Amino acid sequence: MSLRTIAHRGDSFSARENTIEAVLAAVEAGADTIEIDIRTSADRRSVVLHDASTLRLWGRAQLASEQTVAQLQELGVSGTRIPTLGELVQALADLGRPVHLLVDTVDVDDAVVAWTELRTHPGVRDDAVRISWCGLSAAMQRIRELDAEADLRHNHYGGPLDLELLERTRPSVVNCEWTCIDAALVDQVHRLGLEIAVWTVDDGEQMTWLIDAGVDAITTNRPRTLHQLVTGGHSSLGMAWASAEELAARTGVELEMARWVHVARQLAQWQIEFVRTASLGRIDDKANPADVVTEVDTAVERHFREVLAAEFGDHLVVGEEYGGRAEPGRPTWYIDPVDGTTNLANNLPWNSMSLALAIDDQPLVAATTQPWTGELFLAARGMGAARNGVPLQVKKVDSLAGKALLVETSALGLWPGLLELVDGLAREHCAVRVMGSGTLTMTRVAANSSVGGLVPGFSAIDHLAGVLIAAEAGARVMNSDGDDALFPSSGGLLIAPPGAAEKLWPIWQEALKAAAAQPAG
User: Fold this and answer.
1) Quick one: DSSP state of residue 2?
2) Most buried of the four, 22, 130, 144, 188, by CB within 10 Å?
């Protein structure tokens, strides 16, 4: 049986938690089980609510137990209100297909009230909604006393398993916080004939680690992400947040490569957190007043260089701010600490970081970021590409119509052929967008965020990481001659999904020819 997705309080990234809307969204997202919380109202009815009070989500500083259902349902607006347990179960029963509901309770009395209501509910009696229980051990024991056939889950909080309690409550699942997981616990639970589930995991990398660890179910606030990993397959790059040794052991990649990937991922995560919180400090000019550098740029590159020197003393570094030079046969890291500094300096949330390792003209590892969205893109030669641990795969494009091509201007303005390119694309009903970060222009292609990325001149510092990420996601990379090349020695570079690349390259070349034919001046 494949790993199951448990939607925590419904799909709480799509709708307010524990509402009917969130629960229905979780079903639509492909969740196998929907977990909800219960409380008891002043008029002794079971309502779907996690907190003891209604302050956090609903703005009323009063205990739920002090409010009647009518008072509780005054809160919110039409379509977003606190449902009773019966209303929520009926909404699921009305779907016309079986749904699994996991009822979480931290109070014995709440559990008894809910169990009493559910045993007579038509949706439960007719098996339209299957009920399981988890939560406070005393509540589980009381449910077992009331119902010898109830499906229970035992909450485990670390340390040795309570075998006596397991025997008394007879659960089908051991449920624990995900940080308690290790191979010994998974093996012990399975040898007892039980399943093991974990809560609450929203990160694709951690989900990947747990899938590989052999758990049977994961509770998450992001059921769509987990469902994608379970049904579409997970990337070995999702293991990169763990130690290099564990990455190598679990994926079979050589330890040297695992170290490269692990360090690149750690540096990228550090850059995201630093850029979002650091003061820009002094902003200076470099080549001209339009070419600016902040103290964030220099601080990030210094940190990267320090870490790389400590981890890989024989590697070289070529950076945007402090230079450097590659040598034949030497592993070399290419760094742009903040690509899109002008955007950063103007408080525009569209900038990135480019970090790539190459030997000669062969890129091996790449990491880029989009700090303001918390996205971390990672790729390694032959290992694919991932965003926050979730595999990336570009989609074939049959038409340019309605799409957008990302481009960059040259340092001081338009490059020859850009206007002609815009005109050529317009005839195909394809838009052009200038975003101000060459790294993201390349990287976003891997995430299917554009029909392609085009730069007039390739720079390993700015573009190599995005190029490898897009290529490992299945994009085609074409140089100015129309050849496939990940590390061209000169000229521009086009990245696009299959189908789009073959349409975009001729338009680009015609634009360059048209510009060259224009009279000088």
Assistant:
1) P
2) 22
Element (H, E) at 501: helix 500-516
User: What is the reported pTM?
Assistant: 0.92
Distance between CA atoms of 418 and 335, rounded to whole angstroms? 27
- State which H helix or E strand residue 245 sits in: helix 244-251
Please give the DSSP secondary-structure letter assigned to residue 80: B
403 and 444 Cβ atoms separated by less than 8 Å: no
> Which CATH topology does 404-516 take?
D-Maltodextrin-Binding Protein; domain 2 (3.40.190)
Q: In whole angstroms, give the CA distance from residue 103 to residue 88.
A: 12
Nearest to 450 by CA among 380, 497, 384: 497
Tokens standing for residue 20: 């009917």
Q: What is the residue whose two structure tokens read 């049904």?
A: 231
User: 3-state SS of 380-395?
Assistant: ECCCEEEECCEECCCC
Amino acid, res. 249: A
pLDDT single digits (tens) 429-479: 999 999 999 999 999 999 999 999 999 999 999 999 999 999 999 999 999
CATH topology assigned to domain 4-234: TIM Barrel (3.20.20)
Q: Which of 408, 420, 374 is nearest to 516 (CA)?
A: 420
- DSSP label at residue 488: -
Q: Which residue has the tokens 């929907």?
A: 34
Considering the domain 245-391 in this protein, what is its CATH number?
3.30.540.10
- In the DSSP assignment, the letter for residue 433 is E
Strand-pair partners of 292:
285
Q: Where are the domains of the chain?
A: 4-234, 245-391, 404-516
The b/e string for 23-57 (b: 16+ C-beta within 10 A; e otherwise) is bbbbbebbbbbbbbbbbbbeeebbbbbbeebbeeb
Beta bridge partners of 80: 77
Which residue stretches of 242-373 are H helix?
244-251, 255-277, 295-311, 341-345
Distance of CA 15 to the CA centre of its chain: 18
In angstroms, the Cα distances linking 14 to 84, 376, 388 are 20, 22, 19
Give residue for tokens 């990379």.
Answer: 477
Strands 60-63 and 173-177: unpaired
Residue 411 DSSP class: T
pLDDT at position 521:
59
